[in-house]
Amino acid sequence: MTVIDYKSMGKRKILLVEDVVMNQDLACRLLQGWGMEVDVASNGREAVEKVSENSYDIVLMDIQMPEMDGVEATRVIRKMPDYVKAGLPIIAVTANTLKTDKELYISAGMNDILAKPFTEEGLFRIMGSQLGVQINSEMEKMLPNENNQPNTPLYDLTMVRSVSGGDESFVLKMVDLFLTTIPQSLVEMRQQCTAMDWIAVGKSAHKLKSTIDSLGILYLKQDIRLLEKYGRNNENVTLMPSLVDKVVDGMEACISRIKKDFKV
């Protein structure tokens, strides 16, 4: 059985652009485990500043962020007078991967698109393609189907444990982040729904989506995406209150279960 050598890309300097703290920690843990040096930017404006001030091998760019989104940040980087910085490989890391979305990212100057949620192998493969590191055919056979996800009643920490590399303190940190940040997000979503601010509900759904994916809360994956889509397009608003109820109730049940499982 061939084992993928995740250190085969060498020590590269990566700029991770992501506004969700849990996603930042997960990605940093993964990349640092490969021997990478990682800087983090929480929005597109900060990403542009970091690129102008530092040298990076590649940028992993989230799309929907406050202040400046990933598409606009990419356009600004591509216009930098320093041709090396302007030509920096930029990978869109996003759950929005419709054909029109992909066309927008590529037209903005992004080099490739990595769909969320991603596997370790999937991230390695797409970064390797931009950095000139190839996976041989034997390794290619090992790559799992990213659609094959475990089916558990409430949550599944398989991805978090995989990224942790056996470090239980990291798993506990992710659990603590979930328990301390998500309840307020659920309160805000309820308030937005009561105020019939559907666009705000869609934005809240977008933020929750990555957490739902990372923690394997599979039974809410479709509902959270519908909320995001309906809110973004301000459509099917009569369906949104029931979807909000389902997502909030489901997340609260998950919080309760995790507290029991981890005795907190």
Outline the structure in words.
There is one protein chain. The chain is of the alpha/beta class and 264 residues long. The chain folds into two domains: 13-148, 3-Layer(aba) Sandwich (Rossmann fold); 163-261, HPT domain (Four Helix Bundle (Hemerythrin (Met), subunit A)). It contains twelve helices and five strands. It has helices spanning 21-33, 44-53, 70-78, 83-86, 99-108, 120-131, 137-142, 158-164, 168-194, 198-214, 221-233, 240-261, and strands at 13-17, 37-41, 58-61, 90-94, 112-115. The protein has a five-stranded parallel beta sheet, with helices on both faces. Helix 2 runs parallel beside helix 3 (70-78) and helix 9 (168-194) packs antiparallel against helix 12.
Which helices and strands appear, and what pairs or packs with what?
Layout: E1 13-17, H1 21-33, E2 37-41, H2 44-53, E3 58-61, H3 70-78, H4 83-86, E4 90-94, H5 99-108, E5 112-115, H6 120-131, H7 137-142, H8 158-164, H9 168-194, H10 198-214, H11 221-233, H12 240-261
Parallel strand pairs: 1-2, 1-3, 3-4, 4-5
Helix pairs in contact: 2-3, 9-10, 9-12, 10-11, 11-12
In short:
The protein is α/β, with parallel strands linked by helices and 264 residues long. It has helices at 21-33, 44-53, 70-78, 83-86, 99-108, 120-131, 137-142, 158-164, 168-194, 198-214, 221-233, 240-261, and strands at 13-17, 37-41, 58-61, 90-94, 112-115. It has a five-stranded parallel beta sheet with strand order 2-1-3-4-5, sandwiched between helices.
